[in-house]
UniProtKB/TrEMBL annotation:
Residues 432-501 form the Fibronectin type III-like domain. It comes from Artemisia annua (Sweet wormwood). One of its GO terms (biological process) is arabinan catabolic process. The keyword Signal applies. It comes from the Eukaryota. InterPro entries: BXL (IPR044993), Fn3-like (IPR026891), GH (IPR017853), Glyco_hydro_3_C (IPR002772), Glyco_hydro_3_C_sf (IPR036881), Glyco_hydro_3_N (IPR001764), Glyco_hydro_3_N_sf (IPR036962), Ig-like_fold (IPR013783). The keyword Oxidoreductase does not apply. One of its GO terms (molecular function) is alpha-L-arabinofuranosidase activity. This is Beta-xylosidase 2. Keywords: Glycosidase, Hydrolase, Signal.
Length: 516
């Protein structure tokens, strides 16, 4: 599916280098390419990429678009053919790609109910294996952000009564987010926790917008009675959705007041569970010693309540990592939504975007996530020096940047191999994701760090696993300069794996030119 945006001034649905050369050529797509809904119409009506709708239709089909989600091509393709902007063979090519997929599905083989896929229904979706997969995906997606004490995991023996509080504490449909099918069945967070221990339930707010504080007093009363308190807060599709942008990073309405007052009233540990698709500035909770643990669950799907409870009570050892940076609220005032630059600009005060370029304070960094176990990394083997072979036909080394163009290097199979030992010194078995970052040599225009490799490994308590890591030099140790040229900087590259660093010095070697 091609999207609405332009890359280098060309809409993705009208870009033959993307659709024909890359997707169907390099990636060998054996199927059809469809537009995001009305994106062809958008690049004509809104972006004014072409002067006429017929030109827009012709550009899309000639670029390699096969199917339009929307009416634009149905209305304007005939006109494009009549005006000579498009050949009938171009239309036939798009039709071929679409019909070929339908044929492979058996849609032209007579009675569809007798075909392989003709009788699919809920029984095929809601199999035990599929529902277990949904639960496991929810478990693995949960990220433990804070755990002082540690207060987690909870114990059914010590925490015989748990107060479950918050506008997302007993939700179902909220957990599947958007673009979801019909769930096979739901387990809400309240239901999941109730399987482990006795619960006292108070919503605290009527919904996530939490526009008044009328229910906070009852929530505080529940926290005073319980051995532990779990606050399940956050957002839903009324706050963040397609065509509905958030206007801030804080918890909506009176949610922060609810969390703070309940934590103050709670006689046992207070756990904050956040349900959302995007980051939330919960700096107040990170700093509050009365809020001992914070967990982010995303929108965890139909089995979210079971997964949340399994993590809170230690049946599952969390191993998730944040897929985005959690910025502070004041970051928004420094980053105009009309500025798309990634790199920071000291002259204008622009701080940059993403963990790769932004160096300011954050609530939680990209890749953050802790566990009930402690993992220690050791680089068991890795080169200190690595040579990049360069085609001798080029002036290969830029004297100003001391870097080699990727297109001038012999990149085939050019990977740095590391052997990393991961030791679990905790008391619980756990899965651990190694995130390998690289910092290029000092003085380069590249990011201050970037993710170059990752690997997930299960390590039983008290044991050690050796994990092979391969880093493709041309793909992942290169950076893009200010002119958009991807280069490999020569010199010391610093590889970070947790608290461990490994230095690799990259140098070049000029290959001879073979003349026929």
């Amino acid at each position: 599916m091609c999207s609405y945006n332009q890359v280098n001034g060309i809409p993705t649905c009208a870009d033959p280098r993307l659709l024909r050369d890359t997707i169907r050529g390099a990636w060998r797509l054996n199927g059809y390419i469809v537009s995001d809904c009305d994106s062809v119409g958008v690049y004509f009506d809104k972006q004014h990429y072409t002067a006429t709708p017929e030109e827009a239709a012709a550009d899309a089909i000639k670029a390699g678009l096969d199917l339009d989600c929307g009416p634009f091509l149905a209305i304007h393709t005939q006109g494009a053919v009549d005006r000579g902007l498009l050949k009938e063979t171009d239309v036939d090519s798009a039709l071929f790609n679409t019909l070929a997929v339908q044929m492979r599905l058996g849609m032209f083989d007579g009675d569809s109910t007798t075909a392989l896929f003709g009788n699919l229904g809920p029984r095929d979706v809601c199999t035990p294996a599929n529902q277990e997969l949904a639960l496991e995906a929810a478990r693995q997606g949960i990220v433990l952000l804070k755990n002082h004490g540690p207060s987690l995991p909870l114990s059914p023996r010590r925490h015989r009564t748990v107060a479950v509080i918050g506008p997302n504490s007993d939700v179902t449909v909220t957990m599947i987010g958007n673009y979801a099918g019909i769930a096979c069945g739901y387990t809400s967070p309240l239901q999941g926790i109730s399987r482990y221990t006795k619960t006292i339930h108070e919503p605290g707010c009527p919904d996530v917008k939490c526009k008044n504080a009328h229910l906070i007093k009852d929530a505080m009363g529940a926290a005073r009675q319980a051995d532990a308190t779990v606050l399940i807060m956050g957002l839903d599709q009324s706050i963040e959705a397609e065509f509905l942008d958030r206007d801030g990073l804080l918890l909506p309405g009176y949610q922060q007041e609810l969390v703070t007052k309940v934590a103050k009233a709670s006689k046992g540990p207070t756990i904050l569970v956040l349900m959302s698709g995007g980051p939330i500035d919960v700096s107040f909770a990170e700093k509050d010693p009365r809020i001992s643990s914070i967990v982010w669950v995303g929108y965890p799907g139909q089995a979210g309540g079971t997964a949340i409870a399994d993590v809170l009570f230690g049946t599952h050892n969390p191993g998730g990592k944040l897929p985005m940076t959690w910025y502070k609220q004041d970051y928004l005032s420094k980053v105009p939504m009309t500025t798309m630059d990634m790199r920071s600009n000291k002259a204008s005060g622009y701080p940059g975007r993403t963990y790769r370029f932004y160096k300011g304070p954050v609530v939680y960094p990209f890749g953050h996530g802790i566990s009930y176990s402690t993992f220690i990394h050791t680089v068991a083997d890795g080169p200190a020096l690595f040579t990049v072979p360069v085609d001798g036909r080029h002036k290969y080394l830029n004297s100003t940047t001391n870097a080699i163009r990727v297109t001038h290097a012999k990149c085939g199979g050019l990977s740095i191999g590391l052997q990393v030992d991961v030791k679990n010194v905790g008391s619980k078995d756990g899965s651990h994701t190694l995130l390998v970052y690289s910092t290029p040599p000092v003085g380069h225009w590249g990011p201050h760090k970037q993710l170059v490799a990752f690997a997930k490994v299960h390590v039983p308590a008290g044991t050690q696993q050796r994990v092979p890591i391969n880093i493709h030099v041309c793909k992942f140790l290169s950076v893009v300069d200010k002119s958009g040229i991807r280069r490999i900087p020569m010199g010391e590259h610093n590889l970070h794996i947790g608290d461990v660093k490994h230095m690799v010095s990259i140098q070049s070697s000029l290959l001879g030119v073979i003349k026929s």
